[in-house]
Amino acid sequence: MTAVPTTQPRIRTFSATPGQIALALAIAAFLFVFLVLPVTTVIYVAFTEKGTSTFTLVNFYDFVRTELFMRSLWNSFYVSAMSVVWASVLALPLAYVTTRFAFRGAAIVQTLGFLPLIMPPFVGAVAMQLFFGRNGSINLLLDDWFGFKIDFMEGLNGVIFVQSVHYFPFILINLSAALRNIDRAMEEAAQNLGSSGFRLFRRIVFPLALPGYLAGASLVFVKVFDDLATPLLLNVKDMLAPQAYLRVTSIGIADPMGYVISVVLIVASVLAMWLSALALKGRDYATTQRGGGGLARRVMRPHEAVFGYGVVILILALVLAPHLGLLLLSFATIWSFSPLPDAYTVAHYGRVFGESSLYIKNTLIYAALAGGIDVVLGVAIAYLVLRTKLIGREWLDWMASAALAIPGVVLGIGYLRTFYGITLPDGTPLAALWITIVLALAIRRLPYALRACHAALQQISVSLEEAAENLGATKARTVRRIVVPLMTGGILAGFVTSFATAAVELSATLMLVQSNSDAPLAYGLYVFMQSAAGRGPGAALGVVAVVLVALCTFLSHLIVERSQKAKGMGH
Amino acid sequence: MNANVSLTTPAVSVAIEGVNLSYGDNHVLKDVNLAIDPGEFFAFLGPSGCGKTTLLRLIAGFNRADTGRVAIGGQDISSQPPWKRDVGMVFQSYALWPHMSVRRNVAFGLEERGVKRAEIGRRVEAALGLVGLAHLAERRPSQLSGGQQQRVAVARTVAVEPKVLLLDEPLSNLDAKMRVQVRRELRDLQQRLGLTTIFVTHDQEEANSICDRIAVMNEGIVQQVGTPMELYERPANLFVAGFLGTANILEGRVVGSGAGRCFEIDGGTKFPIGEGAAVPDGAALVFRPQHAGLVDRAASQDGALSLPCVIANREFLGASVRYGVRIGGAELAVDMPFQSGHDLFDIGSSAWLRLSPHMLHWLPA
Fold it and tell me: What is the third-level CATH fold of B14-243?
C-alpha cells in the first residue's frame, strides 16, 4: 500500500505539551509490546539455534531443503497469483460496466460487490463445496445432463476459486474508484486526436486506472498469501500459512520451523506491498476535480446491453453463491448428493442461539473492544502526527501502519512465544487470557482505523481549534469539545471497519484461543464446519455473523449520514 | 521552427446551421447560426452557462444537436464521431495524460492516425519547436509549469494538423501575467499556421485583444456577431452593451414628437432624441462612461447636452477617474481622464454632465 502523503495544513510553532509527550510515549510502549516485540521475537527465534541464542541460518537451510516447505511456498505463490488473476476476471467487467455505461442497477452491483467481504472466506468455502464440489449441485446436474464433472473445488483450484470469489471486492472497489476519478477530458482529448474503442481503453483509460487496480491486486495477493483457515478447511495443507499453524500446534512453540515460515510470510507480504508501491511510484495521478467529473457514461446499444447484463448477472450469481449456499445449509436437514437440501428446519438456529450464543457474545465483546482500542489509538496518533511537532511522531504512524504487513498467523505465533512465558500470580500464562485475543485483533485492524481517523482530522481546519484555544480552552479540552465531535463520522467509520473485520477474523485467533468458552464466532464456525454434523449449526452461525456485521455496518452508515447532515457537511 | 515540416493545412470555413440542443427541459442552445471564415480567429464570448462550451463541444463531437448541422469546409460532419472529425481541441484542463511523457503526448494523435515513425518524430519536433518546448520533450506533464502544460496541449493538438483549432478557455488556469503573454503567443501561432480557430472565453478583454470576430452568447442564444470594435461601438442590445465594457443603461419612455421628441427617464430628466435615431419599443438609453464628461458650469456649445448633476462617489482608476453622479433618481458612471495638477470634483458637489447626442443609443433588451 502506498503511504498517503500527509499534507499538514499549518504547523504551529510551539513545541509539544507534557501531556502530548506522555501520550506519545504510552502509544509507543503499547505498539512496542504488542506489535514490535512479538514480531521481533518471531524473527529472532527463526535466526537462532533451537533453545540457545546463537545466530544461525541453519533453520532457513532446513526450510529450503525440505521438499514440503518449498512446495508449500510455491503453492502459496501460485494460489495467490491465480487468485489475483481470477479476482481480476470477476472485478474488471463489473467495474467497467458500472462506471463506463449508463447501467441500471450500478449502485446495487457496487453494494452487492461488498458482500463477500463481510463473511469469512472459509465459511464460504463450505457453502461453495455444496454447490461446486465433486458432489455439489452443479456437478450433480452436469453429471445428470451431460455425464461429466468439473473439479472446481479440488486441491489448489478450490482454494483459488474460494479466495478469488471472496477477495475480488478489493479490486472492484479500488478499480471503480480509480475509473470514476479519471477526468473526462482525458478520454475526450484522446477521442479528439482520433482514438476510440479498445485502443482508447488500452492506451488511456486503463493506464490511468492502473494505480487503483494495483492497489486492489496487491491487497488480494497479500490476503490470500496469509489466509490460513480456507486452505485448512478445504483440506489443503501444503501451503505456507497452514504449515506455520500446523507446525506450531502439532510440534509445539519451541520448533523453529514455524518461525522460519513466519519470516517467509512477512517477507512475501512486505515484498508484494513494496512491489506495488514501486510500480505506482510517480503515478499517483490526481486527475480529478478539474473539468467534467468522471468518464462519460455511454448508453449501451441493445446487443451490448444484453451482453453486459448477462455478464454482470452471471458474476453476481457466482459471487453470491456462497451466501445463498450458507443460507440454504443453515435451514437444511440433510444436504448431500442432491442439488438442493432434502428438507428444511430451523433447529440449527435454535442450537446456535442456545448453546452457541457464547460465541456471539464473545465476538461482540472482542470486536467492540478491539474497535474501541483502535479508534482511541487512531485518533491519538492522527492528532499527534497532524497537530504537533513532536519529534518522531511519524514513527508512531509507520509503526501502526506496519501491522498491515504482518500476517495474522505470524502475530498469533509471536504472541504465544512472547507472552506464554509470562504468567499471572495464579499460574495461568498471559497468552491464555482472552484479552490477548482482543489485543491481537486491535493491532491487526489498527491500520484501517488509523487511516479513517487521519482522513477525518485532516478535513478539520486548524482555525477551529485555534478559536477554541483563543476563547480559553486548554489543548485537552479543545480535543474533547471540538476535535472529537467534528471527527465523529471518521471515528465511527474507523470503528465499524475494525469491528466488522475483527468479528470475522480467524488467522490470529486460531492460534490464541485456548478454551472453547473464550472462543469468538469465527473460531466456533471453524470448529463446527470441520465435521459433517456441525455444518448445519455452523451455517446458521455463519448467517448470524453475516447479518450481525451487515446490520452494524448499515447502522453506522445511517448514523454517519445523519450526523453529517446535521452538521451541514453532507455533499 | 523546423523549415522542413510546416504543420500548415489550407484553412477551411466552419458553418453552424439551425442548431438546437436540450438536456431534458434545459434548452441549452437555441437556433444557433454562425458562419466562420477560413483562417479566422473567432471567439464564443458569454457568461458561464450561456452555452458557449456546449457549442464548442458540439463542433468537436462530444455533444449531439437535436436539430441543425455543423459543416467544416462545406462538409456536414454532424453524424461523425469525435475521432473522425479532425478538429483539434485544447481542453480547459489541458487533459495531458500523466502516464506519458511530453513527447508521447504529442505523438499520440499521429500514432492513432498511423503516421510513419520517422514522420511522427519530425512532426513532434516541429510542434514542440513551434511552442518553444523542444527541450522538455522527455518530461512528464506533472513536471511542467501551468504555462508549459498549456503549450504542450496546444502542440499536441496542432501536431495532427487539424482542420480547425478549438480552444476551450485555454487561459483560465493561468495567472494574470501569464495570461497576457500566452494569449499573444496563441494569436501569433494562429497567424503563422493560418488555422481557423475558435476560442471560448467569458473574458471580454481576452476576446477583444486577440480575436478577429466575436459571437456574444447569452442563455443559449447568439446575441450579436461582429468585430470587437463593432460590438463595442454598436451593440445590438442591452446584454451586449453591458457585457462588453461598462455602460450606463437608463430606462424610461419616449415623450413628445417630431423635433421635440425626448426620452424621459425615471425622475423626470429628459434626453432629446436626435434626428433619425430609432427608438425601439421598450428600449433603454445607453451610453459609455467615457463618452460623457463633467464640467463645473453649464455651457451649451456644439450641440452638446448639459444636465445638472450631483457627484455621489469617486473611484481613482489610474489613467482615469470614475465618478458616480446622480441625475434625478438615476445614478450614472462618468469617466474623466486623470491629469495631475487638475482638481477633482468633490463628493457631494454639483456639476454639469456633458453628453454629445450622437453618443446616445437606444437598445432593446
Answer: Rossmann fold (3.40.50)
Is residue B59 pLDDT above 90, yes or no? yes
Q: What is the pLDDT of residues B100-120, one digit of tens each?
A: 899 999 999 999 888 899 999
Alpha-carbon span B330 to B307, nearest angstrom = 13
- How does the average pLDDT of chain B come out, rounded? 88
Bridge partners (DSSP) of residue B330 are B327
ipTM of the complex: 0.76
What letter represents residue A129's amino acid? Q
Supply B106's cell numbers: 504529442
Chain B residue at shortest CA distance from A209: B99
Strand order in the sheet with B164-168: B87-90, B164-168, B196-201, B41-45, B213-218, B221-226
User: In this predicted model, what pLDDT tens digit does every residue of B236-259 receive, in sequence order?
Assistant: 999 999 898 888 998 888 888 777
Pick from B97, B140, B157, B167 the residue to mutate for testing the A interface (most A CBs within 10 Å).
B97
Distance CA A92, CA A109 (A): 13
Domain ranges of chain B: 14-243, 248-363
Q: Which residues contact A401 (CB under 8 A, 6 or more apart)?
A: A1, A3, A447, A450
| DSSP H/E element including B253 | strand B252-255
Question: Do residues A509 and A412 make contact, with C-beta atoms less than 8 angstroms apart?
Answer: yes
Q: Please measure the distance between the N-terminal and C-terminal CA atoms of chain A and give it in whole angstroms.
A: 28
* Fold agreement (B14-243, B248-363): no
Fold for B248-363, please state it.
OB fold (Dihydrolipoamide Acetyltransferase, E2P) (2.40.50)
Number of neighbouring beta carbons within 10 Å of residue A282: 10
Residue A201 DSSP code: I
Residue of A nearest to B142 (CA): A285
B300 — pLDDT class (breaks 50, 70, 90): low
Percent of chain A clearing pLDDT 90 (strictly above): 13
In this model, does residue A142 exceed pLDDT 60? Answer: yes
Q: In this complex, which of A194, A283, A291 lies closest to B92 when CB atoms are compared? A: A291
